[in-house]
Design brief:
The structure holds two protein chains of two kinds.
Chain A lengths: L15 H4 L1 H34 L29 H34 L4 H15 L3 H15 L21 E3 L2 E4 L1 E4 L7 H33 L6 H18 L2 E4 L2 E3 L2 E3 L2 E4 H27 L3 H9 L4 H31 L11 H13 L2 H30 L5
Antiparallel strand pairs in A: 1-2, 2-7, 3-4, 5-6
Helix pairs in contact in A: 3-4, 3-8, 3-10, 3-11, 4-8, 5-8, 6-7, 8-10, 9-10, 10-12, 11-12
Chain B lengths: L1 H17 L5 H8 L2 E5 L8 E2 L5 E2 L1 H14 L5 E5 L5 H6 L5 E2 L7 H5 L3 E3 L4 E3 L1 E6 L13 E6 L3 H12 L4 E6 L2 H9 L5 E5 H9 L7 E3 L7 E3 L2 E3 L3 H20 L6 H6 L5 H7 L5 H4 L6 H9 L2 H8 L29
Parallel strand pairs in B: 1-4, 1-5, 9-10, 9-11
Antiparallel strand pairs in B: 2-3, 6-14, 7-13, 8-11, 8-12
InterPro entries (chain A): AA_ABC_transptr_permease_3TM, ArtM/GltK/GlnP/TcyL/YhdX-like, MetI-like, MetI-like_sf
Pfam families (chain A): BPD_transp_1 (PF00528)
Protein name (chain A): L-glutamine ABC transporter membrane protein/L-glutamate ABC transporter membrane protein/L-aspartate ABC transporter membrane protein/L-asparagine ABC transporter membrane protein
Chain lengths: 410, 339
């Protein structure tokens, strides 16, 4: 014998799409999606229509045309006969350079300031609070322009180094600080293995990386020995030797020498020219972002329970060791994710470079190229795509790092 | 995220292009004011005076157009633009006319889809250096640091000049004339290069103009003129013939002093009569009143009067007429006939 417990099905009615909670969210999503697509297609057709009205087409051919303008800071070969595409590449490399330098310095500044802000020393803690609040509460653009103005107005022109009794002199005869930037000695090779300087440096970096790897192995070997015998062998001279000797031998073989900057004509010649625009942008980006990172580091450290440091002290660890071995490794898990977004901010903020005439991707591709060719839409799309890819790459790499330091649950 | 970027870019492009294409004359009349793109400040050409009123040689063109179209030379909204933003501002319809010492070139006219309506100043690119540098020719500038406004033709001429003469230089790109001036005076660059008229105007605003020299080389042709968007020939005609009216007025001796008398009744010279609307129907042909040219000339005087008042030899800028004299006096100014 069977009993029917379910009421007979009533079938599907259209009103259920609105009144039945099972279907309602689906309805809303579909409607929203249709509206979004309508908006999107309206924008596209509107753009096409208006471009037609203006008599413009959509064409990336300009990237292969000669650019006609010069760029002062070039990491690769470029002259005014090169293409707009290559000019964009020069700008992209300049963006990458200032972003990498900026991220590195901002992290160092931020970690130091963040830790020091928690110092028991009243003066140090207040000084760091002053730095953090001062920098993060004033727009970045002002800092960039201010540092640049200080450099151009506050430092001597190259002509001040000239004459029998110059009013300015070089530091140690090797570094010249001028209002056009800082000239530092460069390392050149007179018996280089490769034609291109880039390959030579890649070789040196590869050798150095191998040395660093070897040093790690030595450290591991010392740790194993310590585990087994209780004695840690003295390794510092071995480490130092492995780290320096191979690279030094390679440099000597390649005939490395210092190329010192010296006055030549209107400017200094020789050496490496760190332009005022690069320095101003780099310092401003680092100091500004460093202030935010300091707060993230401080927050990360405060997030570790006091019991951890008390336990470390009870074991007899000194405050410095406690910070390095107990607190910071745990704090990193809290610090890394917001740090990623600070790195992204710094990278994208570097597009303010035009304020001081630094030729980054925004100034070349998004500035002069657009202006000379009239390809605003194409140029801006490419520029947006570049920043998007760069940001995704940075957050991808940082996420990998984040995974490596996060709590391993077993 | 990617979608957002594209969407944003398209929105901007869509909005920007949306305003273009309509009849500019109707827009200006409906708005009651003319949107005119000028520089961010170049003494003599376009700069606000102590009272905040824009004055200058390029500004006078805007005022003449406003007077011709709206009857009021003060009905102008000035939009300061940099070398980089000026073309976008015009293409997007943010401004109706761009009068910002802009060089007429093939690619700007054809590829950028603008219409240059004439030349109001024949210029060329020059170099300015401090006298103390002891330089007498641009060819001695090997290795010099050169301040240059980005997004200009001067940027391209400079690259060509140094490449052809096989000498090196270090470009320092700068956004506006004011910044360039500050960098140059601070000694951050040895040389400042732009149109010779711009150099004269910039030097005039220095504390000690005598300490700086403009080198003899003029390395390019820079015909500067107002421009409008492609595709609205009616509007282009109005701006073109307003400029021509200013030039023709000087040629025929119509000045702000005698224009009241000349326009009161038809005189002996039929050309002047047609220009001032006392004879014929020229104004009505492009939808303006018969006395449009009279109003335009009354705004600031004829071309010669404007020149003398703003950048002429009796002003601190002290430019001589040179190529910008009337064709009857050996210059290049030549207005087509008003007929």
């Amino acid at each position: 014998m069977t009993t029917m417990t379910d009421p007979p099905g009533q079938g599907f009615r259209l009103s259920q799409l609105i009144y039945d909670t099972r279907y309602r969210s689906l309805t809303i999503q579909v409607v929203a999606m249709i509206l979004l697509m309508l908006l999107f297609s309206w924008l596209v057709s509107n753009t096409i229509h208006n471009l037609q009205n203006l008599g413009k087409d959509f064409d990336f051919g300009f990237l292969w045309q000669p650019s006609g303008y010069d760029i002062n800071q070039r990491l690769i070969d470029y002259n005014s006969q090169s293409t707009h595409g290559r000019a964009a590449l020069v700008g992209i490399l300049n963006t990458l350079l200032v972003a990498a330098l900026g991220c590195a310095l901002a992290t160092v500044l931020g970690v130091i300031a963040g830790v020091l802000r928690l110092s028991n020393n009243w003066l140090v803690a207040r000084l760091m609070a002053f730095y953090v609040e001062g920098f993060r509460n004033v727009p970045l653009l002002l800092w960039i322009v201010l540092i640049f103005a200080l450099m151009t107005e506050g430092t001597p022109a190259p002509s001040a180094f000239r004459g029998d009794t110059p009013s300015a002199s070089m530091l140690f005869d090797a570094v010249a600080i001028t209002n056009r930037g800082v000239y530092i000695p460069a390392i050149h090779f007179n018996a280089a293995f490769f034609e291109s300087g880039l390959y030579n440096w890649l070789l040196i970096i590869a050798v150095f990386a191998a040395s660093v790897f070897a040093v790690k192995r030595i450290g591991h070997w010392a740790a194993v020995k310590q585990e087994a015998t209780g004695d840690r062998p003295t390794t510092w001279y071995l480490t130092l030797g492995v780290l320096i000797v191979p690279t030094a031998i390679l440099m000597v073989l390649m005939g490395a020498y210092f190329d010192l900057p010296s006055l030549q004509g209107f400017n200094f010649g020789g050496g490496v020219h760190l332009r005022g625009s690069l320095i101003a942008l780099w310092l401003a980006l680092s100091l500004y972002t460093g202030a935010f990172i300091a707060e993230i580091v401080r927050g990360g450290i405060l997030a570790i329970s006091k019991g951890q440091s008390e336990a470390a002290f009870a074991l007899g660890l000194r405050p410095g060791t406690t910070m390095n071995l107990v607190i910071l490794p745990q704090a990193l898990r809290v610090i890394i994710p917001p740090l990623i977004s600070q790195f992204l901010n710094l990278t994208k903020n570097s597009s303010l470079a035009i304020a001081v005439g630094y030729m980054d991707a925004r100034s070349t591709l998004g500035g002069i190229t657009i202006n000379q060719t009239g390809r605003e839409l194409e140029g801006m799309l490419l520029l947006g795509l570049f920043y998007l890819v760069l940001s995704l790459l940075i957050s991808g790499v940082m996420n990998v790092y984040n995974n490596s330091v996060k709590l391993k649950e077993r | 995220m990617k979608k957002t970027v594209i969407l944003g870019a398209l929105t901007v492009a869509g909005l920007a292009a949306g305003a273009a294409g309509a009849a500019t004359l109707d827009d200006v009349k409906a708005r009651g004011s003319l949107n005119c793109g000028v520089s961010t400040g170049l003494t003599g050409f376009s700069a606000p005076d102590a009272n905040g009123v824009w004055q200058g040689f390029d500004v006078a063109v805007c005022r003449a157009v406003a007077a011709a179209v709206l009857g009021d030379p003060m009905a102008v909204e000035f939009v300061p633009t940099t070398g980089q933003t000026r073309f976008t501002a015009l293409a997007s319809g943010e401004i109706d006319v761009l009068a910002r010492n802009t060089t007429w070139t093939f690619s700007r006219d054809v590829d950028l889809k603008f219409e240059f309506i004439g030349v109001n100043y024949y210029d060329g690119q020059g170099f300015m250096v401090p006298k103390a540098l002891g330089v007498s020719s641009a060819k001695e500038l090997d290795g010099a640091t050169v301040c240059i406004q980005t997004g200009t033709t001067t940027e391209l001429n400079l690259a060509d000049f140094f490449r052809v003469n096989n000498i090196s230089y270090e470009p320092v790109p700068i956004e506006t004339n004011a910044e360039a001036q500050q960098q140059y005076l601070a000694g951050a660059c040895d040389v400042y290069t732009t149109d010779a008229s711009g150099l004269a105007a910039t030097r005039a605003s220095f504390e000690a103009p005598g300490d700086h020299v403009i080198l003899p080389e003029i390395i390019s042709k820079e015909p500067l003129g107002p421009l409008v968007r492609h595709g609205d020939s009616e509007w282009g005609d109005i701006v073109r013939w307003t400029l021509n009216a200013l030039v023709a007025a000087e040629e025929y001796g119509v000045t702000s002093a005698n224009i009241g008398e000349l326009s009161a009744a038809p005189g002996n010279n039929p050309e002047i009569n047609r220009l001032l609307g006392t004879e014929g129907e020229l104004g009505a042909m492009f939808g303006l009143e018969a006395d449009w040219a009279k109003k335009a000339i009354m705004a600031n005087g004829n071309y010669g009067e404007i020149f003398e008042k703003t950048i002429g030899e009796n002003t601190p800028i002290g430019l001589s007429r040179g190529l910008n004299a009337q064709w009857t006096e050996g210059g290049l100014l030549y207005s087509p006939p008003f007929r």
